[in-house]
Amino acid sequence: MKIFDLLEQYDYEQLIFCQDRNTGLKAIIGIHDTTLGPALGGTRLWNYESEEAAITDVLRLARGMTYKNAAAGLNLGGGKTVIIGDPDKIKSEELFRVFGRYVEGLAGRYITAEDMNVNTQDLAYVNDETDYVVGLEGKSGNPSPVTAFGVFRGILAAVNEVYGSDDLTGKVVAVQGLGSVGYHVCKHLHEAGAKLYVTDIRKESIARVVNELGATAVDPDEIYKIECDVFTPCAMGAVINDFTVPQLKCRIVAGSANNQLAEPRHGDMLTEKGILYIPDFVINSGGVINVYEEIKGYDKERALNRASTIYDSVKRIIEISKRDNIPTYQAADRMAEERMAKMAKVNTVYLKK
Fold this sequence. Notes:
- The chain contains 14 helices and 12 strands.
- By secondary structure, it is α/β, with parallel strands linked by helices.
- Helix 9 links the parallel strand 11 (252-253) and strand 12 (276-277).
- Helix 11 (286-296) crosses helix 12.
- The longest helix is centred in the N-terminal third of the chain and has 21 residues, at 51-71.
- It is globular and about 55 Å long.
Protein backbone atom coordinates (compact mmCIF):
# COMPACT_ATOMS: atom_id res chain seq x y z
CA MET A 1 0.00 0.00 0.00
CA LYS A 2 1.45 3.35 -1.10
CA ILE A 3 -0.05 5.69 1.47
CA PHE A 4 1.03 8.96 -0.12
CA ASP A 5 -0.48 7.85 -3.43
CA LEU A 6 -3.77 7.25 -1.59
CA LEU A 7 -3.61 10.67 0.05
CA GLU A 8 -2.83 12.37 -3.22
CA GLN A 9 -5.70 10.69 -5.06
CA TYR A 10 -8.37 12.78 -3.30
CA ASP A 11 -6.04 15.40 -1.80
CA TYR A 12 -6.17 14.36 1.86
CA GLU A 13 -4.42 16.65 4.30
CA GLN A 14 -3.33 14.29 7.06
CA LEU A 15 -3.30 10.68 8.21
CA ILE A 16 -2.34 10.33 11.87
CA PHE A 17 -1.40 7.01 13.49
CA CYS A 18 -1.90 6.81 17.27
CA GLN A 19 -0.50 3.93 19.34
CA ASP A 20 -0.39 3.17 23.05
CA ARG A 21 1.05 -0.16 24.21
CA ASN A 22 -0.40 -0.02 27.74
CA THR A 23 -4.04 0.32 26.64
CA GLY A 24 -3.79 -1.45 23.29
CA LEU A 25 -4.88 1.68 21.43
CA LYS A 26 -4.31 1.51 17.68
CA ALA A 27 -6.13 4.47 16.14
CA ILE A 28 -5.95 6.18 12.77
CA ILE A 29 -7.26 9.73 12.36
CA GLY A 30 -7.93 10.85 8.80
CA ILE A 31 -8.36 14.53 7.94
CA HIS A 32 -9.52 15.07 4.40
CA ASP A 33 -10.17 18.78 3.96
CA THR A 34 -10.39 21.78 6.29
CA THR A 35 -11.26 24.46 3.73
CA LEU A 36 -14.57 25.19 5.44
CA GLY A 37 -13.41 24.73 9.04
CA PRO A 38 -12.15 22.10 11.48
CA ALA A 39 -12.65 18.50 10.41
CA LEU A 40 -15.62 16.85 12.12
CA GLY A 41 -16.28 13.13 12.05
CA GLY A 42 -17.01 10.29 14.46
CA THR A 43 -14.82 7.56 15.92
CA ARG A 44 -15.49 4.01 14.75
CA LEU A 45 -14.25 0.95 16.67
CA TRP A 46 -13.97 -2.15 14.51
CA ASN A 47 -11.93 -5.34 14.38
CA TYR A 48 -10.49 -4.75 10.92
CA GLU A 49 -8.98 -7.73 9.14
CA SER A 50 -5.86 -5.72 8.29
CA GLU A 51 -4.23 -2.34 8.77
CA GLU A 52 -4.75 -1.70 5.06
CA ALA A 53 -8.51 -2.23 5.47
CA ALA A 54 -8.57 0.24 8.37
CA ILE A 55 -6.66 2.86 6.38
CA THR A 56 -8.96 2.44 3.38
CA ASP A 57 -12.04 2.81 5.60
CA VAL A 58 -10.88 5.90 7.48
CA LEU A 59 -9.94 7.67 4.24
CA ARG A 60 -13.28 6.83 2.61
CA LEU A 61 -15.22 7.95 5.67
CA ALA A 62 -13.24 11.18 6.14
CA ARG A 63 -13.84 12.24 2.55
CA GLY A 64 -17.51 11.41 2.92
CA MET A 65 -17.72 13.75 5.91
CA THR A 66 -16.17 16.59 3.90
CA TYR A 67 -18.95 16.31 1.35
CA LYS A 68 -21.69 15.81 3.93
CA ASN A 69 -20.65 18.87 5.95
CA ALA A 70 -20.20 21.03 2.86
CA ALA A 71 -23.53 19.99 1.36
CA ALA A 72 -25.24 20.76 4.66
CA GLY A 73 -23.88 24.31 4.57
CA LEU A 74 -21.80 23.83 7.71
CA ASN A 75 -18.51 25.58 8.41
CA LEU A 76 -16.78 22.26 8.94
CA GLY A 77 -14.33 20.08 7.07
CA GLY A 78 -14.27 16.30 6.98
CA GLY A 79 -12.43 13.83 9.17
CA LYS A 80 -12.86 10.44 10.81
CA THR A 81 -11.18 8.07 13.25
CA VAL A 82 -11.02 4.30 13.26
CA ILE A 83 -9.80 2.34 16.27
CA ILE A 84 -8.63 -1.19 15.47
CA GLY A 85 -9.75 -3.94 17.84
CA ASP A 86 -12.54 -6.10 19.20
CA PRO A 87 -15.07 -3.80 20.93
CA ASP A 88 -15.85 -6.51 23.49
CA LYS A 89 -12.20 -6.80 24.50
CA ILE A 90 -10.32 -3.53 24.21
CA LYS A 91 -12.78 -0.89 25.44
CA SER A 92 -11.63 0.88 28.61
CA GLU A 93 -11.60 4.30 30.22
CA GLU A 94 -7.83 4.45 29.81
CA LEU A 95 -7.94 3.72 26.09
CA PHE A 96 -10.45 6.47 25.34
CA ARG A 97 -8.61 8.96 27.55
CA VAL A 98 -5.35 8.27 25.73
CA PHE A 99 -7.20 8.73 22.45
CA GLY A 100 -8.61 11.99 23.79
CA ARG A 101 -5.06 13.22 24.36
CA TYR A 102 -4.19 12.52 20.75
CA VAL A 103 -7.26 14.50 19.65
CA GLU A 104 -6.26 17.35 21.97
CA GLY A 105 -2.81 17.32 20.39
CA LEU A 106 -4.36 18.29 17.05
CA ALA A 107 -5.35 21.60 18.65
CA GLY A 108 -8.83 21.79 17.14
CA ARG A 109 -8.06 20.68 13.58
CA TYR A 110 -10.22 17.62 14.27
CA ILE A 111 -13.41 17.26 16.34
CA THR A 112 -14.61 13.75 17.11
CA ALA A 113 -18.02 12.26 17.85
CA GLU A 114 -19.89 8.96 18.21
CA ASP A 115 -19.85 6.26 15.56
CA MET A 116 -20.00 2.47 15.31
CA ASN A 117 -19.32 0.72 18.66
CA VAL A 118 -18.53 4.02 20.39
CA ASN A 119 -21.15 5.42 22.78
CA THR A 120 -21.74 8.52 24.88
CA GLN A 121 -19.92 7.02 27.89
CA ASP A 122 -16.85 6.41 25.73
CA LEU A 123 -17.05 10.01 24.53
CA ALA A 124 -17.27 11.20 28.13
CA TYR A 125 -13.86 9.60 28.74
CA VAL A 126 -12.51 11.31 25.61
CA ASN A 127 -13.97 14.56 26.92
CA ASP A 128 -11.94 14.19 30.13
CA GLU A 129 -8.86 14.94 28.01
CA THR A 130 -10.18 17.25 25.28
CA ASP A 131 -13.02 19.62 24.50
CA TYR A 132 -12.83 18.73 20.80
CA VAL A 133 -15.66 16.20 21.06
CA VAL A 134 -19.41 16.51 20.41
CA GLY A 135 -22.50 14.35 20.88
CA LEU A 136 -22.13 14.29 24.64
CA GLU A 137 -24.90 13.26 27.02
CA GLY A 138 -26.77 16.29 28.34
CA LYS A 139 -25.89 18.46 25.34
CA SER A 140 -27.08 17.73 21.80
CA GLY A 141 -28.01 14.18 22.84
CA ASN A 142 -29.60 11.62 20.51
CA PRO A 143 -29.46 13.04 16.95
CA SER A 144 -32.13 10.67 15.58
CA PRO A 145 -35.14 13.01 15.84
CA VAL A 146 -33.29 15.82 14.05
CA THR A 147 -31.97 13.39 11.43
CA ALA A 148 -35.50 12.10 10.84
CA PHE A 149 -36.92 15.59 10.51
CA GLY A 150 -34.30 16.40 7.88
CA VAL A 151 -35.15 13.22 5.98
CA PHE A 152 -38.82 14.18 6.06
CA ARG A 153 -38.01 17.63 4.68
CA GLY A 154 -35.95 16.03 1.92
CA ILE A 155 -38.83 13.74 1.01
CA LEU A 156 -41.14 16.76 0.78
CA ALA A 157 -38.74 18.46 -1.64
CA ALA A 158 -38.57 15.33 -3.80
CA VAL A 159 -42.36 14.93 -3.80
CA ASN A 160 -42.70 18.58 -4.76
CA GLU A 161 -40.38 18.01 -7.73
CA VAL A 162 -42.14 14.88 -8.98
CA TYR A 163 -45.76 15.73 -8.18
CA GLY A 164 -45.74 19.54 -8.07
CA SER A 165 -46.83 19.83 -4.44
CA ASP A 166 -45.60 19.14 -0.89
CA ASP A 167 -48.91 17.46 -0.07
CA LEU A 168 -48.38 13.87 1.12
CA THR A 169 -52.05 13.08 1.63
CA GLY A 170 -52.65 9.63 0.18
CA LYS A 171 -49.07 9.24 -1.00
CA VAL A 172 -47.72 5.70 -0.47
CA VAL A 173 -44.33 5.43 1.22
CA ALA A 174 -42.44 2.15 1.75
CA VAL A 175 -40.08 2.45 4.70
CA GLN A 176 -37.27 -0.07 5.21
CA GLY A 177 -35.82 0.01 8.73
CA LEU A 178 -37.68 1.20 11.82
CA GLY A 179 -34.89 2.06 14.24
CA SER A 180 -34.53 5.42 15.95
CA VAL A 181 -34.45 7.38 12.71
CA GLY A 182 -36.87 5.24 10.69
CA TYR A 183 -39.50 5.34 13.44
CA HIS A 184 -39.43 9.15 13.63
CA VAL A 185 -39.52 9.43 9.83
CA CYS A 186 -42.68 7.30 9.89
CA LYS A 187 -44.24 9.58 12.49
CA HIS A 188 -43.67 12.65 10.32
CA LEU A 189 -45.00 10.89 7.22
CA HIS A 190 -48.08 9.62 9.06
CA GLU A 191 -48.86 13.06 10.45
CA ALA A 192 -48.58 14.47 6.91
CA GLY A 193 -51.19 11.99 5.64
CA ALA A 194 -49.02 9.39 3.92
CA LYS A 195 -49.95 5.70 3.76
CA LEU A 196 -47.12 3.56 5.14
CA TYR A 197 -45.81 0.13 4.23
CA VAL A 198 -43.02 -0.87 6.59
CA THR A 199 -40.51 -3.61 7.32
CA ASP A 200 -37.68 -4.37 9.72
CA ILE A 201 -35.71 -7.40 10.90
CA ARG A 202 -37.10 -6.78 14.42
CA LYS A 203 -40.73 -7.81 14.90
CA GLU A 204 -41.18 -5.51 17.88
CA SER A 205 -40.17 -2.49 15.78
CA ILE A 206 -42.73 -3.39 13.14
CA ALA A 207 -45.45 -3.93 15.75
CA ARG A 208 -44.80 -0.49 17.24
CA VAL A 209 -45.29 1.34 13.94
CA VAL A 210 -48.29 -0.80 12.94
CA ASN A 211 -50.02 -0.23 16.27
CA GLU A 212 -49.19 3.47 16.68
CA LEU A 213 -49.37 4.69 13.09
CA GLY A 214 -51.64 2.20 11.31
CA ALA A 215 -48.88 1.10 8.95
CA THR A 216 -49.06 -2.08 6.87
CA ALA A 217 -46.28 -4.59 7.57
CA VAL A 218 -44.55 -6.53 4.80
CA ASP A 219 -41.72 -9.08 4.75
CA PRO A 220 -38.20 -7.64 4.35
CA ASP A 221 -37.79 -9.04 0.83
CA GLU A 222 -41.16 -7.66 -0.27
CA ILE A 223 -40.52 -3.99 0.54
CA TYR A 224 -38.81 -3.36 -2.83
CA LYS A 225 -41.85 -4.62 -4.76
CA ILE A 226 -44.42 -2.30 -3.17
CA GLU A 227 -46.13 -0.01 -5.66
CA CYS A 228 -45.43 3.31 -3.99
CA ASP A 229 -44.59 6.94 -4.52
CA VAL A 230 -41.49 6.91 -2.30
CA PHE A 231 -39.12 4.15 -1.22
CA THR A 232 -37.41 5.20 2.02
CA PRO A 233 -34.39 3.08 3.04
CA CYS A 234 -33.50 3.67 6.69
CA ALA A 235 -31.54 0.51 7.49
CA MET A 236 -28.40 -0.94 5.91
CA GLY A 237 -26.35 0.47 3.04
CA ALA A 238 -25.95 -0.92 -0.49
CA VAL A 239 -29.69 -1.65 -0.77
CA ILE A 240 -29.82 -0.08 -4.23
CA ASN A 241 -28.11 -2.78 -6.27
CA ASP A 242 -28.42 -5.08 -9.29
CA PHE A 243 -30.98 -7.25 -7.49
CA THR A 244 -33.25 -4.53 -6.07
CA VAL A 245 -33.35 -1.84 -8.77
CA PRO A 246 -35.39 -4.00 -11.22
CA GLN A 247 -37.93 -4.64 -8.43
CA LEU A 248 -38.54 -1.01 -7.48
CA LYS A 249 -41.98 0.38 -8.32
CA CYS A 250 -41.55 3.90 -6.99
CA ARG A 251 -40.96 7.41 -8.34
CA ILE A 252 -38.55 8.50 -5.60
CA VAL A 253 -35.81 6.93 -3.46
CA ALA A 254 -35.17 9.06 -0.37
CA GLY A 255 -34.11 7.76 3.03
CA SER A 256 -31.63 7.97 5.88
CA ALA A 257 -29.46 4.88 5.27
CA ASN A 258 -25.78 5.57 4.56
CA ASN A 259 -24.15 4.46 1.29
CA GLN A 260 -27.43 3.37 -0.33
CA LEU A 261 -25.91 2.86 -3.77
CA ALA A 262 -23.96 -0.39 -3.90
CA GLU A 263 -21.97 1.19 -6.74
CA PRO A 264 -22.23 4.59 -8.49
CA ARG A 265 -23.66 2.91 -11.58
CA HIS A 266 -26.77 2.03 -9.57
CA GLY A 267 -27.49 5.74 -9.36
CA ASP A 268 -27.35 5.77 -13.16
CA MET A 269 -29.75 2.81 -13.24
CA LEU A 270 -32.27 4.71 -11.12
CA THR A 271 -32.04 7.69 -13.46
CA GLU A 272 -32.57 5.48 -16.50
CA LYS A 273 -35.64 4.01 -14.81
CA GLY A 274 -37.08 7.48 -14.17
CA ILE A 275 -36.65 7.29 -10.39
CA LEU A 276 -35.51 10.45 -8.58
CA TYR A 277 -32.72 9.54 -6.15
CA ILE A 278 -31.98 11.89 -3.25
CA PRO A 279 -28.34 11.30 -2.21
CA ASP A 280 -28.03 9.92 1.30
CA PHE A 281 -25.29 12.19 2.62
CA VAL A 282 -27.49 15.21 1.90
CA ILE A 283 -30.85 13.99 3.14
CA ASN A 284 -29.46 12.37 6.32
CA SER A 285 -27.28 15.31 7.34
CA GLY A 286 -29.57 16.27 10.22
CA GLY A 287 -27.34 14.28 12.58
CA VAL A 288 -24.21 16.26 11.80
CA ILE A 289 -26.27 19.46 11.85
CA ASN A 290 -27.37 18.52 15.37
CA VAL A 291 -23.81 18.11 16.68
CA TYR A 292 -22.66 21.23 14.83
CA GLU A 293 -25.13 23.20 16.92
CA GLU A 294 -23.49 21.71 20.02
CA ILE A 295 -20.20 23.33 19.00
CA LYS A 296 -21.96 26.69 18.87
CA GLY A 297 -23.90 26.16 22.12
CA TYR A 298 -26.76 23.75 21.65
CA ASP A 299 -30.25 25.00 20.90
CA LYS A 300 -32.72 22.37 19.68
CA GLU A 301 -34.98 24.83 17.90
CA ARG A 302 -32.04 26.22 15.98
CA ALA A 303 -30.93 22.69 15.06
CA LEU A 304 -34.40 21.86 13.72
CA ASN A 305 -34.53 25.11 11.76
CA ARG A 306 -31.19 24.34 10.13
CA ALA A 307 -32.27 20.74 9.41
CA SER A 308 -35.37 22.18 7.73
CA THR A 309 -33.10 23.71 5.05
CA ILE A 310 -32.35 20.18 3.77
CA TYR A 311 -35.45 20.86 1.66
CA ASP A 312 -33.56 23.67 -0.09
CA SER A 313 -30.41 21.54 -0.45
CA VAL A 314 -32.41 18.81 -2.20
CA LYS A 315 -33.96 21.38 -4.53
CA ARG A 316 -30.47 22.71 -5.30
CA ILE A 317 -29.21 19.21 -6.17
CA ILE A 318 -32.11 18.71 -8.56
CA GLU A 319 -31.36 22.09 -10.13
CA ILE A 320 -27.67 21.19 -10.65
CA SER A 321 -28.67 17.79 -12.04
CA LYS A 322 -30.82 19.48 -14.67
CA ARG A 323 -28.31 22.25 -15.34
CA ASP A 324 -25.37 19.94 -15.95
CA ASN A 325 -27.35 16.94 -17.26
CA ILE A 326 -25.90 14.60 -14.62
CA PRO A 327 -27.46 12.13 -12.14
CA THR A 328 -28.37 13.50 -8.72
CA TYR A 329 -25.65 11.54 -6.93
CA GLN A 330 -23.08 13.42 -9.01
CA ALA A 331 -24.95 16.69 -8.56
CA ALA A 332 -24.67 16.35 -4.77
CA ASP A 333 -20.89 16.06 -5.04
CA ARG A 334 -20.82 19.06 -7.35
CA MET A 335 -22.88 21.15 -4.93
CA ALA A 336 -20.44 20.39 -2.11
CA GLU A 337 -17.42 21.09 -4.32
CA GLU A 338 -18.87 24.41 -5.48
CA ARG A 339 -19.34 25.56 -1.90
CA MET A 340 -15.79 24.57 -0.96
CA ALA A 341 -14.43 26.42 -3.99
CA LYS A 342 -16.34 29.59 -3.06
CA MET A 343 -15.20 29.47 0.56
CA ALA A 344 -11.60 28.82 -0.47
CA LYS A 345 -11.64 32.27 -2.06
CA VAL A 346 -12.73 33.80 1.24
CA ASN A 347 -9.63 32.26 2.84
CA THR A 348 -7.36 34.25 0.52
CA VAL A 349 -8.05 37.34 2.64
CA TYR A 350 -5.17 37.72 5.09
CA LEU A 351 -5.92 37.63 8.81
CA LYS A 352 -3.24 38.24 11.40
CA LYS A 353 -3.39 35.65 14.19
